[in-house]
Each structure stands twice: as structure tokens, then as C-alpha cells.
Amino acid sequence: MRRIWTSTELNDYVEFPHTQQVVRVERTVTKLDGTPLNGKRPRTEVSFGITSVPPERASASKLLELNRGHWAIENKLHWVRDVTFDEDRSQVRRRGSPHSMASVRNLAIGVLRIAGASNIAAALRHCARNVRTTLQLMGL
Predict the structure, then answer these.
(1) Total number of domains in the chain
(2) Which is nearest to 47 in space by CA: 27, 74, 70?
(3) H or E stretch including 23?
(4) For 98, phi and psi rounded to 5 degrees?
(5) 109 and 60, same structural domain?
(6) Helix (H) and strand (E) counts in the chain
(7) Structural domain of residue 30, as residue ranges?
(8) Is-contact 6 60, C-beta < 8 A?
(9) What is the three-class DSSP state of 47?
């Protein structure tokens, strides 16, 4: 569960350029079935933020939606790169090679997502077994 509070009254007290709103986001973390998380009761996390977007352009509900959307990037891209591609243990370390390999991985993830893949690991295994599918995804 997430809750948000926004304020413009603190803008003059925050030493940050272009401050339009100050935000407090409270998240209560539980298991989906309501049972204790790791044998413990629900955990509450609080974070604070500053945005240059005025309230007229982004209401509290819009800011909460944007905050939640941030995790979509983490879950759909970074987690896939970390787990599926095991990027953290990569031995590619010379010159621009790490950047190039990250770009190739991002391209592969993007192509598979556009093709409708929700499970990148399964899609990669399918492409490894079916060269024709891989070539079609590449436009060849």
C-alpha cells in the first residue's frame, strides 16, 4: 500500500533549484496473501522527494503513479540484466566493451518486449532453439 503527501509550502526552505513540490511517500510492505513478511509484521518505509513539476501539472495521484512507475523500470530492465544475463559477473572489461555489451543486452530485451515476450529468459531460450524466429526478430 502506498500513500503520498505533497506540499508547496516548504519550497522556500529547500535549497534545491526549481523546487515546485516536496513529497513524502509511505509504503507498507506485506505479502499479497496478507501473511507476515519473513515472519514479521508489515514493514513501513518512508521516503521523501523534491520535484520541479508544479501541482498544476502533476497532482499527488500523478506523482504517486510516477513513483510506482519507477519500479517498473527496475523490475523490467535492471532485474532482467542482473539475473537473466548475469551482468554483474561479466568478464568483459576492456575499453568500451562493457558499454557495448550493455547496449546489446538492452537491444535484445527491447526487441523481445516489442515482440510480446513477458518472460525474457524463456524468450531467449526459444530464440536459441529456433534460428528462424531469431532472424525474423532481427528483420532478416
Answers:
(1) 2
(2) 27
(3) strand 21-29
(4) -60, -40
(5) no
(6) 5, 3
(7) 1-64
(8) yes
(9) strand
